[in-house]
Amino acid sequence: MSAVRYPIAANATAALNAPLGRAARASDAAVLAGGPVVFATEAAGPSFPTREAALDAFAGRLDDERPGHGSSIQSEDRFCDLRELAQHAPSKPGKSHPPPPIYRDGRRWPAPPATAPVTIWRLSVSYWKPAEAAAPILEPPPGEQTRKRASAPQDPKALRERLSQPLAPVKPQQPLDVGLFEFRPPEAPHLLIPDE
After folding, report:
1. Is residue 66 within 8 Å of 72, Cβ to Cβ?
2. Residue 75: what are its φ and ψ, rounded to 5°?
3. Which residues have a Cβ under 8 Å from the Cβ of 124 and sit 6 or more positions away?
4. Which of 170, 177, 171 is nearest to 192 (CA)?
5. With a threshold of 0.70, does the pTM exceed it?
6. Of 161, 163, 156, 134, which is closest to residue 26 (Cα–Cα)?
7. Domain boundaries, given as residue ranges, for the chain
């Protein structure tokens, strides 16, 4: 059985329509992409109310075992999958309060939902994403003092370089505490010996 050859693209839509190439391993994908890659799985395309509608829309990309259709794709092309998701109702603006509990038979039970969530089907695509497309712009840690110029913001490359440097301590490290079951012998005060 041959390995799955995943597409190389910046996003799931590009992986379906116009990939840079296809590779089974990360090392092969990095050569084709011209840099490091990360493995990603994302939803692509519209949502469908039934599995049958999704299989009809993505014919040729998925195995279809329905009577009369009976199509099977090659093992190296199995980078797509159908996922069943619950579509939640949009939340109302303002404060949302949890529903009050219901007490029954001496136990606390949560209130049953008013209506069951609607089920939708989405196509899930697994692919190799170039690392520069996958890496978010790094923000400095909240406790770090940053030098900000009002005229020009820092570019992402300079920020990544500064954040990759080792952290410097704010103050010297304090000596370790000696616990209840540890002691320092008088002849070797630099040692900490456990004592039970």
Report:
1. no
2. -65, -30
3. 41, 42, 43, 44, 80, 81, 82, 83
4. 177
5. no
6. 134
7. 6-88+114-134
